[in-house]
Amino acid sequence: MARRILSRFGHWSSYVFAVEFDTKSDPIYFALEGKHSEGPQVFRNVLADERCYSLHVYSDDIIERAKFYGGLKNKLSKELPSECTLLEMSTFQPNVKDSVIKGYFLKDSSKSSATERVLGELLRNDPVYVCSYLCGGEDRQWSQHLWSNTEDGWVVGSEKYCVVPAEKPKHHPSTLNIINDDVFYSFEDAYKVLQQCGDIIPESKAVLELVDQRLESKEKTAFPVIVIEGLDATGKTTLTESLTEALGATLLRSPPQCLSPWRARFDTEPPLIRRAFYALGNYLTAGQIGQEARKAPVILDRYWHSTAAYAIATAVGGKLGNLPQAGSEVYGWPGDLLRPSLVLLLSLSPQERMRRLQVRGQDKTREEEELEANHLFRQKVEEAYQRIEGPACVTVDASPSPDQVLQQVLLLIREKCHL
Ligand SMILES: Nc1ncnc2c1ncn2[C@@H]1O[C@H](COP(=O)(O)OP(=O)(O)O)[C@@H](O)[C@H]1O
Ligand SMILES: Nc1ccn([C@H]2C[C@H](O)[C@@H](COP(=O)(O)OP(=O)(O)O)O2)c(=O)n1
């Protein structure tokens, strides 16, 4: 195991470690050096004299890696002493795509030996890589020690690396692995993920059977295809229904109705699998659009913008400024997915959206609850929506009455789609 990980890491010197102490500020970045080095001590203020450990999840199998990382936080929270604090950690090569190895950083202020026992068990049985951090010497320099498995159990390796501060990279580490971990830019990439899940998630097979029977969609449609996007409770259902009637159109949604039996199941899966499910939903809907847009205009309740914006906002940790910059390839449209004629984004103040959610009084999806709790996340979803291109969305003020919103949107459609 350790050898496999080390081959992936190459030599330590090209990697930087990022520990998220607080989602509102920058992570602490540090690197490792073979020899003792002078300079500011990265950890002095944040760690005091606590015992610290890091865990890196590694497996060549992307499904195993995603499933294990997804369950690890729960497992650790249950098994570790309550005096342990678990922080998100990533190890990466600065600004190098797909270089992130995810893990956790652990601060332990307990005096118990339980922590090391739990970590030793993980090292023995699971795809993880464990290190401890010690502070010693006259100048109290922090060093990292890699654990290894032996026949007599785990041991703290003799090799030590000095912990030194590293520069803040241009791209936040959470943006480096978005492509094909969180957002899929072709049918084939999303399909492969569900295929690989077949043995552990039997429902994937049923989804793939439906996907295999999907209808073809041509790039050009006879009638316009208009997508309505926005956060929950911004008025999408209300508007799509009235628009459909006003234009004599056909109403479709993504994910399509035929995927409903499996949606809740995939919502519990880690991002890799969950996002692949939604990506395939768009291709199924594209097949339906291809049929329906021969006969009448199509109104679509959510499509690719939702898939990409929620996925990017979930993947990118911390502040709004950590999102990939506008124009980044992550905001591009998949080359093989039918493009709509127009995408309208309903925009609402957080206060009015909250009021409508309360009036509606329905159960919210877990993610929508998170949106409520996490103002930063909501801002990131809205910003990502506005950065997606090919086509970009046109923002519509959704705060007037339902009829006023409808009239405003009909004007836009007449102007942009000549309907
Ligand atoms: N323009 C509007 N003004 C006031 N309330 C609205 C408006 N549009 C929708 N609503 C109400 O807000 C709630 C959420 O609307 P809905 O269409 O279900 O949103 P979504 O489909 O985006 O979740 C519903 O109770 C709906 O009646
Ligand atoms: N085309 C789509 C539609 C939804 N999603 C995902 C994005 C979010 O995780 C949820 C939001 O769905 P939710 O059930 O809140 O949406 P409704 O407003 O109820 O339609 O679904 C997606 O990825 N792709």
UniProtKB/TrEMBL annotation:
Its EC number is 2.7.4.14, 2.7.4.9. InterPro entries: P-loop_NTPase, Thymidylate_kin-like_dom, Thymidylate_kinase. It holds the Pfam family Thymidylate_kin. It is an enzyme of class 2 (transferase). The keyword Transferase applies. Residues 228-408 form the Thymidylate kinase-like domain. It comes from the Eukaryota. GO terms for cellular component: mitochondrion. It catalyses: dCMP + ATP = dCDP + ADP; dTMP + ATP = dTDP + ADP; CMP + ATP = CDP + ADP. It is found in: Mitochondrion. Belongs to the thymidylate kinase family. This is UMP-CMP kinase 2, mitochondrial. It comes from Coregonus suidteri.
